[in-house]
Amino acid sequence: MTISSKHKKPIVASFAAVTLIAIAGVVSIARQSVAEETVTTLPPAKSVEVDLVQTTNARLWREFSGRMAAVDRAEIRPQVSGTITDIRFVDGQRVEKGDVLFVIDPRPYEAAVQQAKADLASARTANELARSVQKRADELIKNAAISQRIYDERANNTLVTDAAVLGAEARLEQAQINLDYAYIKAPVSGLLSRAEITLGNLVSAGPTAPLLTTIVSDSGIYAEFEIDEKTYMDNIHAVAGIRNNELKIPVEIYIGAARKRYEGFIHSLDNQIDPSTGTIRGRAFFPNENAELVPGMFVRVNLGSPEEQESILLNERAIGTNQDRKFVYVVNADNIVEYREVTLGESIKSSRVIRSGLENGEMVITKGLMRIRPGMTVAPQITTDTQRVAAQ
């Protein structure tokens, strides 16, 4: 059967239309499938730990380098010359104030004391005679029984013997002092060093007197350190107000790899700032009951503010470094991460004071900063690190 040419065009057009509709349907189905696949393969928002920024009252701390120093330290040197005949301590021994440490041959000084006592007795005897003669002269001069010249001589002799007694007393006292110096005593209670000079050695007093030993007190110890001028003016003097309040400032020191902590308080601040260094000397006192702190030991000194101050604290692990800048990642109201530069203040335990860059109520990511990028959508999980630090 033959189809005429005038019927061929409608049939071809119909077939083409059907084909286009079929292709469009396939494309539509494919797009829907891709869209559904895209929706189902989107990753969930990353869960992150955040701190809720809050202001809290906290004592601010500044860290300085320091050295421990004994409250009392004395170098023991001879004050009289002679041969050392006795040493009455062992190296490192603890002694009480007044304990005898060394004995310098006392015999010459004992003899000098006896001689001084004899001289004093002779002077007193002469003085008694002169006073007796003076008393008789006082009666005789009333009756003109002696001349004025004789009376004056007897009165002068009394004055001379008075002075002789005083001189003899002074020489006796000096002799007794020298005898006491022959028994070298501990000037303070504390721990001794070793004996630098041993038995039988001859020692001399004076400017070149040799060092015999040293003693340091063990009833408390100082930490000495330098405070920069800005810290002193802004954080100590301006807040404390008066000198007595400055001496109530708390101090902590840390020693060793374990950073063992000791608590003390300011004992004194110098009366001037050193213009060459721009620092003022500070000294803190620590009880040191177990004698764990030793003079000369290097320590880290944490100096607290006189009073608590309202501050924003943030865990140090939330703070990143970008060259010379410090930053944090903040989660905004749409749970999107934002980059924020911050200005840091003092350290307080494991947190830092934030001077600028954050406000109350903001959420700061505290963990996994290397995996976070600005613009990410996250699921924040609030922690309580800030509150725990503030409560410490």
Keywords:
392 residues; alpha+beta; conserved putative lor/sdh protein from methanococcus maripaludis s2 fold; Elongation Factor Tu (Ef-tu), domain 3; OB fold (Dihydrolipoamide Acetyltransferase, E2P); 4 domains; nine-stranded mixed sheet; six-stranded antiparallel β-barrel; 6 helices; 33% helix; disordered N terminus; disordered C terminus
- Low-confidence stretches at least 5 residues in length (pLDDT < 50)? 1-13, 386-392
What's the average pLDDT? 83
* The first-level CATH class name of the largest domain: Mainly Beta
Structural class, by secondary structure, is alpha+beta
Q: How would you sum up the major sheet?
A: 9 strands, mixed
Q: Compute the number of structural domains.
A: 4
The CATH topology label of the largest domain is conserved putative lor/sdh protein from methanococcus maripaludis s2 fold
Total strands? 23
Count of DSSP helices?
A: 6
Q: What is the quaternary state of this protein?
A: single chain
**DSSP strand content:** 25-35%
Sum up the overall morphology in one term. Answer: elongated
Q: What Rg, in angstroms, do the CA atoms define?
A: 46 Å
Distance between the termini: 103 Å
DSSP helix fraction? 25-40%
Element-by-element helix/strand order = HEEEEEEEHHEEEEEHHEEEEEEEEEEEH
- By CATH, the architecture of the largest domain is named Beta Barrel
